């Protein structure tokens, strides 16, 4: 229950951090909020020989407006800072709604936006929310810099496209079109515990209340956040009704995902939750897009 | 160890300078290096909440931080909250409502509640239960803890104490 020994570096600039990652590669691990990495180290599931602690890099802590109504969140911005941010509430209310559902208050004190995303836990709310909001992540190494859409970032269980010499620097989210509504709902055994299933939904309507765009992303039902594309296609260019939302929710649960069972929930129960929660998320998002949510 | 790091930090308003191995958890540092055994260690993987302390005024799990990360920061533990003769209102309330039995979870719960009650002077039961959801108690069934928090909120709205340096 104690971590194995490691070499410790606490750079105060991004460049210095990237130089350690370039030097040590797979042997190094970036320490952000530590709320997942340190438990793994305590259990010795992770035994990195080098820790690059990025908590002293001031340039990674920020929440800023992006051009045209979008939002930028620095990788080390802590969950409680995102939770309390008025700018986030104005520009990405889906993120604000999600924050209190993430883990416990003590974890939100330390945990970071970029850390949660980089860890790529399929039950992490911010992974699904980032995909639902068409966010993208800035990854930087000493050699290059690239923006990766959230949709392409997560590739498997706890794995992303991040290379060992790369670090996630910031996330950006475009402004939502007018007449858009969002919702994030989840079920956990205990509030703030890992979600058995969660659903993030974004609905955009035309002036005549036709569904212009719908995004449905589920968490805890696969190896990474799962976009329910068949369900989305059923809604786009149609007039939304409780029946059509329910049909889309059922399709999401039956055809878009293939959840596994474990001691926390059977596959069947997860499918059931996926259907119920997708409906609730769509219903809420639809109401908000109409302006009466 | 050759790769020890020197750290300087404030714990309960006292300044300490120590040399620590980077892998030393903050919880172990408080208990073993400083002898502040009021911070309890339960699960050591961020589930039980027994080791909760205030780090720059924020409740954190001290088993999910390395001592070396506390360099230059300010920590408050249960020992810095009240004294035997001058208990913090939350501590008094736990006695009055019988909000503990074995007491193992109590320091972590109380430290979590300090900033919560400062931000929410008049919480309802749901808010209280959410606030302590990161702390596990295996004795009380939480009922009396919730009662204790209600009493503490009433006391603290009268006496503004428990001054934590917020940064």
Task: Describe the structure concisely.
The complex is a heterodimer of chains A (293) and B (167). By secondary structure, chain A is of the alpha+beta class. Chain A has helices at 14-24, 37-42, 79-84, 86-91, 93-98, 105-110, 113-119, 125-132, 150-153, 229-235, 242-256, 267-290; strands at residues 7-9, 28-31, 50-53, 63-65, 71-74, 136-140, 145-149, 154-156, 159-160, 167-173, 180-188, 195-205, 211-219, 226-227.
Structural key phrases:
heterodimer; A: 293 residues; alpha+beta; Uridine Diphospho-n-acetylenolpyruvylglucosamine Reductase, domain 2; Uridine Diphospho-n-acetylenolpyruvylglucosamine Reductase, domain 3; 12 helices; globular; B: 167 residues; Ubiquitin-like (UB roll); DNA polymerase, domain 1; 2 domains; 15% strand; elongated
Verbal overview:
The complex is a heterodimer of chains A (293) and B (167). Chain A folds into three domains: 7-53, 2-Layer Sandwich (Uridine Diphospho-n-acetylenolpyruvylglucosamine Reductase, domain 2), CATH 3.30.43; 61-173, 2-Layer Sandwich (Uridine Diphospho-n-acetylenolpyruvylglucosamine Reductase, domain 3); 180-290, Enolase-like, domain 1. In chain A, a hairpin with a 5-residue loop joins strand 12 and strand 13. Chain A is 36% helix and 24% strand. Chain A has 293 residues and is α+β, with helices and mostly antiparallel strands. The N and C termini of chain A lie far apart (47 Å). In chain B, 32% of the residues lie in helices and 15% in strands. In chain B, strand 1 (5-11) and strand 2 form a beta hairpin. Chain B has 167 residues and is an alpha+beta fold. Chain B has a five-stranded mixed β-sheet with strand order 2-1-5-3-4, with helices on both faces.
